[in-house]
């Protein structure tokens, strides 16, 4: 009996250890998908898109052409800026190959979806390889995530958040 | 005026006679020689005209206001028909004389008048044959108009018909004079001298006494050059047409009088005097005809619609006294800009030239010289202006009527068009002369049997000859111009805006890429909402009167860069293709073919996007964009060239990318409008090989 009673206890202990180990290993992955490092800033920008004054509070000085500086930068992203007053865009770090940028594209999509959660949904009818669209639930703003090849020959992922209705 | 020999034979069929006359003309060398000489003459004038017109059109591309002064009537038709006029004046008498001169010289006329026909019938049939010959002679000049039209040049039906009518009446008059000359002389050579004396004498009148005061001025009006000039100005004058018809009939009647041999000269002279007297009376009557139609698209012979309507309603007589010498340039201006238009529109107007008998030199001491007095009813006023802007308000004030509000009407947009003259040279110097020689050769191989049967003649000679030429013209011309039209960038200037396309929104320029010129849209420098530089002029060049509406829309919704193809007025069916390469653009790398562009600024576009890998048919209405059809998964890599094609068939639209059909859509209405290229936001794109293949 005792052996029979001990066995389940060991099993439970093993399961606890295994679960703890699993959580330790998988934790960062789950954590990264659920809460990307730029999530707070992304949520801030997304909230402003739906606010009364839109992006006015985070638009900086003018750049060349129709571009303006952004006062908010998504951590881990580069060259965040505004195109006009209705479109915010950031570029990822550069990748050497298109495969790397495609992998990053899928990762960013999951990150953004998990960050913005239920308020934004992917419009699969508009998706193409390397290009996805998310709309907010009121269809007032959209986010596109696409890949691009820069003049330097780097493959990047680009996130664009823009107001839909003019 | 019936020949006593033929008075018993009324009602004999005229067709055999007409066939004989046709054969007579076609078998002679004069007609074919004229045709061969007319080819280089007309061809050179046409080539010169299209070259000058192309230069002016190119200048209009940089300053679109200039486009409004570009009229194919002045730039192409009048100079080309002018060379035909010279050919007809100098050479056509020899063709016309042949229908009678040969018979007189060979004695066949004595046999002819014994046939059961009136002398008048003989002459009228000969005149009909002359008319037919003139039509043949007009083939070179008409082919120039066809070339212009098929190549995409604008033609106004009313203008070309009026010009053609003027030259036709002139040709008939020359033919009638030639017939008369042939009837009063014994040899063709003498008849030619008489006819040329008439035609060249008319030139002399025009060169030497035009602009002279007094009766010389009246005499100058008899010049046939002046006659043609009215038609060249796009004015269809009732009195002029009627006068020409009377003149043709008079010379035909005189030929009828002098045709039959065996009648005393004194009797012929008396009959001639009766003819001339009747003609003079008729001419005086027809000269009273005031009706005339301004057929020009730019209404150059008329006041603005509102002014014309107001002036037509003025009941009392308007008396104008002009203190200017006829040769004074101010009088010429006044006559052209004001008096001629007033005469056309006002029912009761009299114009008196106070210095009519004076020359410019002798009028120098006259204090009133230069003044123009206007008297309407009991009121009068004086002005020195020759401009309708000042004279019309003066007349309204005299009449006590307000200046009318402008009536909206279609403003003349001008028709700039660049045509390469290479084919014209080939046509007039090689192809057409060869066709004429072949037709001539064929006409000489005709059977020489009984010439009195129209059927034989019609089926074996002239009809086949004409058919050969007509079919050859169609066979040669159509394939030459059925080719798609590609916007040629080779003559464009790198760094400048394109000349063949009109940038409406965005920064569009020609760029040199490894020695090849490309069209680029550069959204990097462009600020959203900015239309292209000089947009008002460009809008006017594109849409004329409706430019304001177009301009308003463009300026209100300048969110998407686009250029409009200048030479495509209305694209309804066919294919539009372009190659593009996405160079950069963070927000977009869009390249589209724009079509169905309306004067209100609405349009459709099918665009590809290197950042999105999709092909979308967008609709723009009142500045608002909405997607009509969205096709996913269309690989469009950046920094690679792609082919984009739009095929339109009525209301059916197809979109192709890199040769693959991706998009098919049926619109609620057929496509109709201008076309161009489209882009978006900060796209920096290269375009090349923009090709338009319109089909019926």
- Give the overall average pLDDT of chain A: 82
Parts with pLDDT < 50 across at least 5 consecutive residues of chain B: 1-9, 448-463
Structural class of chain B: alpha+beta
**Largest interface pair:** A-B, 25 and 25 residues
Largest sheet of chain B: 8 strands, antiparallel
Can you tell me the overall shape of chain B? globular
Count all strands of chain B and give the number: 21
Q: Pick out the low-confidence regions of chain A.
A: 1-7, 18-32
Order of H and E elements of chain A: HHEEEEHEEEE
Placed side by side, the strands forming the largest sheet of chain A appear as 1-2-3-4-8-7-6-5
Q: How would you describe the oligomerization state of the chains in this entry? A: heterodimer
Could you give the distance between the termini of chain A? Answer: 77 Å
- State the end-to-end CA separation of chain B: 55 Å
Overall mean pLDDT of chain B stands at: 84
- Which structural class best describes the helix and strand composition of chain A? alpha+beta
Count of helical stretches of chain B: 19
Biggest sheet of chain A, in brief? 8 strands, antiparallel
Total number of strands of chain A: 8
**Helix content range of the residues of chain B, please?**
40-55%
Radius of gyration of chain B: 31 Å
Q: What can you tell me about this protein's structure?
A:
The complex is a heterodimer of chains A (166) and B (696). Chain A is of the alpha+beta class. Chain A folds into two domains: 1-34; 39-163, no CATH class. Chain A contains three helices and eight strands. Chain A has helices spanning 2-34, 39-49, 98-116; strands at residues 59-62, 67-70, 78-83, 87-91, 120-122, 131-136, 141-149, 155-163. An eight-stranded antiparallel sheet of chain A has the order 1-2-3-4-8-7-6-5. In chain A, a hairpin with a 5-residue loop joins strand 7 (141-149) and strand 8. In chain A, helix 2 crosses helix 3. Chain A is globular. Chain A starts with a helix and ends with a strand. The model of chain A is unreliable at 1-7 and 18-32 (pLDDT under 50). In chain B, the strands form four sheets. In chain B, strands 7, 9, 10, 12, 17, 18, 19 and 21 form an eight-stranded antiparallel sheet that branches. The two termini of chain B are 55 Å apart. In chain B, a hairpin with a 4-residue loop joins strand 14 and strand 15. In chain B, helix 1 crosses helix 17 (454-481). Mean pLDDT of chain B is 84; it is low at 1-9 and 448-463. Chain B has three domains: 15-295 and 445-481, no CATH class; 305-399, Glutaredoxin (3-Layer(aba) Sandwich); 486-694, Jelly Rolls (Sandwich). Helices cover 48% and strands 19% of the residues of chain B. Chain B contains 19 helices and 21 strands. With 696 residues, chain B is of the alpha+beta class. In chain B, 44% of the residues are buried. Chain A binds chain B through residues 64-67, 83-84, 87, 89, 91, 125-131, 144, 146, 148-151, 158, 160, 166, and chain B through 523-528, 559, 584, 586-587, 611-614, 624, 630, 632-635, 637-639, 681-682.
């Amino acid at each position: 009996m005792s052996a029979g009673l001990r066995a389940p206890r060991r099993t439970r202990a093993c399961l606890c250890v295994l679960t703890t180990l699993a959580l330790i290993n998988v934790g960062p992955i789950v954590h990264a998908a659920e809460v990307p490092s730029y999530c707070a800033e992304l949520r801030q920008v997304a909230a402003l898109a739906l606010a009364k004054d839109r992006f006015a509070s985070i638009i900086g000085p003018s750049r060349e052409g129709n571009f303006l500086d952004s006062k908010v930068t998504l951590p881990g992203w580069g060259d965040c800026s505004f195109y006009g007053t209705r479109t915010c865009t950031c570029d990822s770090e550069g990748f050497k190959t298109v495969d790397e940028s495609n992998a990053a594209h899928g990762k960013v999509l999951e990150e953004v979806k998990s960050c913005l959660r239920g308020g934004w949904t992917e419009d699969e009818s508009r998706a193409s390889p390397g290009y996805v669209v998310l709309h907010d639930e009121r269809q007032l703003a959209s986010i596109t995530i696409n890949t691009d090849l820069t003049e330097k020959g780097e493959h990047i992922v680009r996130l664009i958040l823009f107001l839909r209705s003019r | 005026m019936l020949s006593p020999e033929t008075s018993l034979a009324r009602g004999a069929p005229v067709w055999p006679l007409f066939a004989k006359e046709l054969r007579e003309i076609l078998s002679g060398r004069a007609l074919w020689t004229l045709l061969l000489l007319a080819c280089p003459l007309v061809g050179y004038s046409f080539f010169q005209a299209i070259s000058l017109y192309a230069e002016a059109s190119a200048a209009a591309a940089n300053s679109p206001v200039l486009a409004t002064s570009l009229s194919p009537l002045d730039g192409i038709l009048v100079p080309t028909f002018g060379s035909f006029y010279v050919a007809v004046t100098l050479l056509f008498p020899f063709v016309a004389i042949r229908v009678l001169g040969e018979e007189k010289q060979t004695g066949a006329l004595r046999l002819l008048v014994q046939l059961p026909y009136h002398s008048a019938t003989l002459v009228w049939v000969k005149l009909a044959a002359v008319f037919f010959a003139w039509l043949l002679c007009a083939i070179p000049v008409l082919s120039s108009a066809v070339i212009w039209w098929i190549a995409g040049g604008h033609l106004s039906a009313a203008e070309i018909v009026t010009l053609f009518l003027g030259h036709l009446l002139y040709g008939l008059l020359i033919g009638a004079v030639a017939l008369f000359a042939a009837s009063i002389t014994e040899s063709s050579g003498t008849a030619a001298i008489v006819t040329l004396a008439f035609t060249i004498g008319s030139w002399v009148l025009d060169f030497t006494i035009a602009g002279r005061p007094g009766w010389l001025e009246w005499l100058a009006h008899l010049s046939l050059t002046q006659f043609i000039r009215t038609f060249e100005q796009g004015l269809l004058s009732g009195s002029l047409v009627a006068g020409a018809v009377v003149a043709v009939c008079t010379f035909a009647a005189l030929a009828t009088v002098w045709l039959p041999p065996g009648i005393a000269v004194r009797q012929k002279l008396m009959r001639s005097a009766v003819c001339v007297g009747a003609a003079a009376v008729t001419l005086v009557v027809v000269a009273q005809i005031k009706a005339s139609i301004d057929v020009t698209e730019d209404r150059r012979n008329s006041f603005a619609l509102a002014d014309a309507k107001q002036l037509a309603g003025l009941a009392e007589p308007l008396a104008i006294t002009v203190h200017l010498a006829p040769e004074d340039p101010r009088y010429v201006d006044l006559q052209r800009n004001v008096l001629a238009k007033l005469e056309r529109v006002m029912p009761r107007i009299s114009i008196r030239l106070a210095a009519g008998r004076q020359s410019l030199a002798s009028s120098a001491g006259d204090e009133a010289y230069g003044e123009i007095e206007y008297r309407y009813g009991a009121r009068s006023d004086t002005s020195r202006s020759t401009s309708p802007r000042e004279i019309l308000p003066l007349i309204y004030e005299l009449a006590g009527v307000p200046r009318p509000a402008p009536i909206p009407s279609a403003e003349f947009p001008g028709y700039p068009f660049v045509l390469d003259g290479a084919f014209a040279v080939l046509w007039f110097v090689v192809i057409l002369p060869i066709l004429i020689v072949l037709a001539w050769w064929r006409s000489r191989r005709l059977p020489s049997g009984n010439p009195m049967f129209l059927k034989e003649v019609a089926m074996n000679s002239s009809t086949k000859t004409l058919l050969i030429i007509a079919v050859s013209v169609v066979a040669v011309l159509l394939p030459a111009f059925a080719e798609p039209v590609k916007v040629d960038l080779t003559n464009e200037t790198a760094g400048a805006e394109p000349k063949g396309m009109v940038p409406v929104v965005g920064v569009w320029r020609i760029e040199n890429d490894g020695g090849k010129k490309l069209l680029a849209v550069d959204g990097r420098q462009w600020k959203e909402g900015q239309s292209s530089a000089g947009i008002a002029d460009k809008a006017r060049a594109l849409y004329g009167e409706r430019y304001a509406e177009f301009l308003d829309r463009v300026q209100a919704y300048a969110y998407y860069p686009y250029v409009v193809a200048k030479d495509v007025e209305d694209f309804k069916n066919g294919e539009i293709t372009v190659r593009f390469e996405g160079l950069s653009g963070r927000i977009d790398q869009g390249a589209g073919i724009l079509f169905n562009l309306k004067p209100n600024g609405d349009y459709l576009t099918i665009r590809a996007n290197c950042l999105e890998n999709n092909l979308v048919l967008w609709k723009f209405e009142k500045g608002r964009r909405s997607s009509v059809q969205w096709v996913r998964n269309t690989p469009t890599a950046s920094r690679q060239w792609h082919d984009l094609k739009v095929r339109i068939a009525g209301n059916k639209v197809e979109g192709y990318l890199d040769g693959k059909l991706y998009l098919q859509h049926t619109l609620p209405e057929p496509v109709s409008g201008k076309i161009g290229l489209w882009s978006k936001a900060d796209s920096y794109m290269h375009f090349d090989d923009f090709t338009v293949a319109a089909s019926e």
